[in-house]
Specification:
heterodimer; A: 288 residues; alpha/beta; TIM Barrel; 8-stranded parallel barrel; 11 helices; 41% helix; B: 231 residues; Rossmann fold; 4-stranded parallel β-sheet; two-stranded antiparallel ribbon; 6 strands
Amino acid sequence: MKLSEAFKSGKFVVTSEIGPPKGVDIATMLEEAELLGGRVDGINITDQQSSVMRLGSLAVCKLLKDKGIEPVFQVTCRDRNRIALQSDLLSAHVFGIENVLCLTGDYVSLGDHPQARPVFDLDSISLLQAAVKLRDGKDLAGNELQGTPDFCLGAVVAPAADPVEPQIIKMEKKVAAGAEFFQTQAVYEPAKFEQFMKQVKNLGVSVMLGIVLLKSAGMARFMNKNVAGVHVPDSLIDEMDKAEDRVKKSIEIGARLIKEMRDMCQGVHIMPIGWEKHVPALLDAAEL
Amino acid sequence: MVVSEQKPFEEILRMTEGEKKIFIVGCNGCAEASGTGGKAQVAEMKSRLEQEGKKTITGTTSVDFLCDKGLVKARLARRAAQISEADALLVMTCGIGVQATAAVVAKPVHPACDTISLGGSRGEWQGSERCRECGECLLDYTGGLCPLTVCTKGLINGPCGGAKNGMCEFQPKTKECGWQLIYERLKKLGRLDKMRTILEPKDFSKMEVPETIKSTIKWAVEQREEEAAAK
């Protein structure tokens, strides 16, 4: 099912994500997918996340679809030119994949093949435009398609970026280019998120709050120093520092954040980053 | 030699929409040789903008090499009054000259030309690659900073999500986010509307020099000159 239909029904939409393995041993990944599948409306499959070469997003989306789990096909512009990107979108459609998340993609230097030639022929905006054109029965060059694919198109935004204005300008362009829903970068400050949501309210698109469970105070400090668009306030770092049971505290914080912000937005996107097994407990605690 | 082509006049009118007073800058170097930004073309542009564009031209000047940022600064300083009276500058030269001009004046700067080939040159303003000879100059939208060279990913529609504290994810200790620089400059110029424009995917075929140019006598002479210089 398209996520847009879930939003239309007025439901608070929940998605999570899994990263394909490096290699072809898919047993663990499928276990994680099944663990999450029954609890969420869709599962993002990352596309060579952090520029690390892995099993492909498209293949894993198909595997999930076959299991009756709704995949969200993440597509980045780093590794494919406009010919390959459009072709993969057509392939996704024939596999029954209905949700596509369009991203720029990390730079190649962040991953395990820093020597690779980066592509970036299209960007997240023109990738959205290409998908819309395909949906309208034409390719980017204006050629007619035999049969038209259909997608629900998503994109990303970082509400905690500083400054946030360039992010919002780009978000507006993504909406104009065809994005129907947004998943955000991890947010830890409800006040900042509220402010952001006020600024983008007029765009009329569904926004899903991004949640990353804090595994430790060290992880929070690391993200503050290194991860773009993320800021964990000192009070939360302190809470994690003092926690006797880190997992319990982490879930408690995550659930509290979701509860504080759920009325400001239309859904939540949980990025477990290795803590897939704790997502059901987080959803229970957040009453989702 | 840097080879440039003038943008269609309609595009120049579109870039300068809403602006009444323009100061025109030409280049007596490659742009004159290309027939795109020499004194004759500056005079022609002035009269077309006045007649067809209904613009007031506050002044014109031609600099020997607009890619020489220091020289541009000194020359434009002499015209400070005319420039300050203008809403924007129209710069009739290659991408390097447009960026040199944008770097020294606090006014919107429009490129009148597309840079077809730098011919292996980086102009007189050396130090880094500033123009990628893409044949469809976008400097109008980006505050006179080339998105293909200042952004590691060459993104044309705004920043990715990878910058932290204004630094690029590629080299976070040393490389500033190009789109942060573009954003700051456009904001300072009061032209964030330019950043809001959706730019279509680039036509990368224009990065190759067209056969129509390669088959001209001028191109052949130029190539021979370079071969001679190499010897």
